[in-house]
Amino acid sequence: MPWPGGDEGSALAGRIASSGSKWAAGLAAVSVRLWLVRHGSTDWLEAGRLNGWADVPMNDRGRLQARALARRLAGLTFAGVWSSDLQRAMETARLAAGGAVADPRLREIDFGVLEGRRWEEIPIDSRNALAAFDGFEAPGGESVAHLGARAFAFAAALPEGDHLVFTHGGVIRFLLRQAGRDRRVLPGELVHVVLGPVGGRASRAGPSRAGPSWAGQ
């Protein structure tokens, strides 16, 4: 499913930005339970480089993380298994879950001219904005509002049920913040967010068996 560009994409991003955390109300008719996985580690991640749309592969540590997750996922079933179309997420999905349907709306934020820079190489105003998150817009890249709009568009199109989603730190942070939580998710980690009638709260419910104790909070 292509993500709208140009005026259409910008208009949707503007609507999400103006509505704040209330965007989840669009899912009020159903309960969508997202099991969000951050892709495994990469050389750029370990070097402290910002990695958005640059298609950097996973490294050996990341593959070990994905295989460890596969053991935790064994025996669970999902209504759908989805992944960002970037190779670090797709390979995580292949090793952890046997593959996934690629969707570009699950990509990391486009860091524009900041892509590949280490934290200390980023201008202080951009660092502060990225740390605050909601108002961040990468120079020559994408805003968090735009990232949120495409994440919302993806989630709003899902049928009711449990969905396993392999994606990136920025997408996961956006969705966690809608649930009133904000924390760093490690490479290969899984966290659980419920969207819909329960108003984005965390839940212990599992996909087809009792929610496992390793589900992130």
Supply database-style keywords.
7 helices, 217 residues, disordered N terminus, Rossmann fold
Would you write up a description of this structure?
This protein has 217 residues and is α/β, with parallel strands linked by helices. The protein has one domain: Rossmann fold, CATH 3.40.50.1240. Strands 3-2-4-1-5 form a 5-stranded mixed sheet. Helix 1 packs across helix 6, helix 3 packs across helix 4 and helix 6 crosses helix 7. The protein is globular, with a radius of gyration of 16 Å. The chain starts with 5 loop residues before the first helix and ends in a 22-residue tail after the last strand.
Which architecture per CATH? 3-Layer(aba) Sandwich
Kindly identify the CATH topology: Rossmann fold
Number of E-state strands: 5
On the 0-100 scale, what is the average pLDDT?
83
Report the β-strand fraction as a percent range. Answer: 5-15%
Mind describing the biggest β-sheet? 5 strands, mixed
Structural class: alpha/beta
CATH class: Alpha Beta
Helix content: 25-40%
From the spread of the alpha carbons, the general shape counts as: globular
Strand order of the largest sheet: 3-2-4-1-5
Q: Number of DSSP helices?
A: 7
Q: Return the string of H and E elements.
A: HEHHEHEHHEHE
CA-based gyration radius:
16 Å
Into how many domains do the coordinates divide? 1
Q: Which ranges are low-confidence, i.e. pLDDT below 50, for 5 or more consecutive residues? A: 1-29, 198-206, 208-217
* CATH H-level superfamily: Phosphoglycerate mutase-like
